[in-house]
Amino acid sequence: MDVRLPNLGEGADSGVVVAVSVKEGDTIQKGQTLIELESGKAVAPIPSPSSGKVTSIKVKEGDKISTGTVILSLEGAAGSGASAPPPAAEKKTPRPTPPAVVAAPEPELESSSDGEDVDSEPEETDEQTAAMAASPELRRMARMLGIPLTRIKGSARGGRVTFEDVKAWIGRLRRAAAQARVVASPAVVSRPAAPKVDRVDFAQFGVVSRKPLSALRKVIAQRMLESTSLIPQVTQFDEADITRLLDLRKRHLAAYESKGARLTVTGIVLKAVVGTLLKHPLFNASIDEVTSEIVFKEYVHLGIAVDTEAGLIVPVIRDAHKKSVLELSLDLQNLAEKARDRKVSLDELKGGSFTISNQGGIGGGHFTPIVNRPESAILGMGKGSVKAIVKEKQIVPRTLLPLALSYDHRLIDGGSAARFISDLATAIEQFEESELKL
Q: How far apart are CA 14 and CA 342, in angstroms?
């Protein structure tokens, strides 16, 4: 039987083979890893769906393969539907290709579940409206607003049209209009077209060498292009005095180590960020570009940018609003290690509502992080440094942490951003010691 690449999940239908874990002649067991596949920003093991002897291997390291590609052949394998040839693609009724947008076509509106059509029809006469089973007030309102009562199916006794029937009919019109806007303006939600570029012969200026972009680097490049092309981004800068916070960290460091956790400034700041996001929910929200709505999330899933040898990976700490500093520190440590080892799963890379990028361990001060679309904001942290500041009319040395908040200006205004970063700096400077106690 041929073992094929299974469906990798939503939004992932291909990947690059980074390791082949078996060889021809091996006898393998069901569930044993066959290959490791780099898809998006994750490296996932692909297990065997059956036991048997490997008779031939069809892929090698560096190959780009997609769902349904034959990985290898097995002899004496127990039957498994997962390894059978992929079924023929489901036949779908072909949709007519929309005409070129010269003049926008009249949108085809949806029909209601009870059979009434909300498509355009000849206007009804006043006599027809008056003859409808509806209250005088409703008929008068319908005439003023141009609502065709004869096209609305009444839900009351005898087919009488009520105000609720009219509201439901208008709701269907709005949904149909939203669908029409998406069809008429696909550029609003589609990826930006790659600009036409001329190839430059760099070798004419001197000796060069070439190295292909990795699959991860291509994904990063595409995400950054989408974000900067579709989101008008502004960055708000500030500094937080973490002198007291560093003293608190030293005081509780040993207790956290006894629990197997590393108490870091980042782990403490995560807790402060959660509290600030709950106070400013707009920074935890997203724009639904299809429906032109703001989506407010009742959860806080924090994306943590991790610098790896392969490139930037952003695993997500889920339900951060429900976790203590200890739990956040353990999650932070675990996800960072998995990201650097490329063992983070695709699910652990999805669903973030706000991202934090900390360059403090490397160096540098303020920078302008790029919003991780479809989120609306991202926080950048630089390296804390000792500076001379004026405090209570005295010049004293204090350790200041650079903060940089980039945000989607379509959703967030400058005043809101200034209030957010000011409240965050206060939350860091006045962090409650009780939050650190185990």
A: 17
Residue type, 206: G
- CATH dotted code for 126-186: 4.10.320.10
**pLDDT of 293 over the 70 cut:** yes
- The reply to whether domains 126-186 and 228-435 share a CATH topology is no
Report the run of H or E that residue 74 belongs to, with start and end.
Answer: strand 70-75
Q: What is the DSSP string of 375-425?
A: SSEEEEE---EEEEEEETTEEEEEEEEEEEEEEETTT--HHHHHHHHHHHH
Q: Which of 120-129, 137-146, 378-387 has the lowest mean pLDDT?
A: 120-129
**Domain-by-domain residue ranges, the chain?**
2-83, 126-186, 228-435
Distances (CA, A) of 389 to 76, 242, 358, 381, 386: 76, 13, 24, 20, 9
Longest CA pairwise span in the chain (Å): 87
Q: What would be the CATH architecture of the domain defined by 2-83? A: Beta Barrel (2.40)
Of 252, 301, 366, 409, the catalytic one is 409
Region 228-435: CATH code: 3.30.559.10
CA distances for 219 relative to 42, 223, 303, 312, angstroms: 11, 6, 17, 10
Percent pLDDT > 90 in the chain is 43
Per-residue pLDDT tens over the stretch 324-351: 999 999 999 999 998 888 888 888 888 9
**pLDDT value at residue 394:** 93
With beta carbons less than 8 A apart as the criterion, state whether 233 and 370 touch.
yes
> Which of 93-107, 248-262, 416-430 comes out lowest in average pLDDT?
93-107
In whole numbers, what is the pLDDT of the chain averaged over residues?
82
What the block records as the tokens of 425 is 């700096």
Q: Where would I find the beta strands (DSSP E) of 263-384?
A: 286-288, 293-295, 302-304, 306-307, 312-313, 316-317, 354-358, 377-381
- Annotated active-site residue 366? The verdict is no
Cβ–Cβ under 8 Å, residues 266 and 355: no
Q: Is the dihedral of CA 221, 223, 229, 234 positive or negative?
A: negative
Predicted local distance difference test score (pLDDT) of residue 362: 87
Q: Which residues pair with 28 in a beta bridge?
A: 52
Question: Could you tell me if 188 and 196 are in contact, meaning their C-beta atoms sit under 8 angstroms apart?
Answer: no
pLDDT digits (tens, 9 = 90+) for 298-311: 999 999 999 888 78
